[in-house]
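Two records follow; treat each independently.
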Amino acid sequence: MWDFIFNASNGLAILAWTVLILLPRKPLALSAIMYCGVGLLCCVYTASMISTMAGWADPVGPSGGVDFTTIEGVRAVFGSDGGVTIGWVHYLAFDLFVGLWIARDADAKQFSRILQAPILLATFLAGPIGLLIWLAVRERAARKLGRMK
């Protein structure tokens, strides 16, 4: 079960990132990325987290419960296939959401798609690194246009 969820989530994320980076950013494509990409990944995460925390699927930790208050507890969560899958889907959902924000922000500030592509790829592969690069690159344009735009 966890292999299927892991692989399906990866496939969905790769498809969404491909659309975001390579295809024209029409309203339908952006909505599909938001709701069929980010939204569906969030649903998978929520269902997986609830089923694991309730002990219905792949209970983790020495007592079968989830403990995020200690490093040992977090290590125990990631020591199971369910825990790894849940953590990975968490990353996929948030990184895709951040990538979508970067793309929309970059389009609004009229950055070229050529400049955007490596930043989005960095966000896909290493989330916070891509976001940090975008925050540094966008600063001058944000000041020029005003912070609210």
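The next record belongs to a different protein.
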Amino acid sequence: MALSPAGAAGIAQLMPETATRLHVDPWDPEEALSGAARLMKKYVDTYHGDFAKALAAYNAGPGATEHAIATFGADWLAHLPTETQHYLQRILRNEYEA
């Protein structure tokens, strides 16, 4: 029953609009994880296997990620929210422990 201050809900921390677009109930773990997996697949495909950009799109949103990439080029990550920067560091450096 996790709910972030920003309104992201459930195990996959989906925003309500995203859950609606994916046709999933964010509070149903199976639905939410299935939807999150489809969404990540889309982002991985969009960014041609660049997991950092895919994860950034999942966390900060595709609009913010695209804007950072288009505006700041190679320095794109430094221009996303600190939360997103830490999210990527934890995942990509294997610092997250379940």
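Discussion point: Helices lie at 16-22, 29-46, 51-60, 62-72, 82-92. How would you locate this feature using only the token line?
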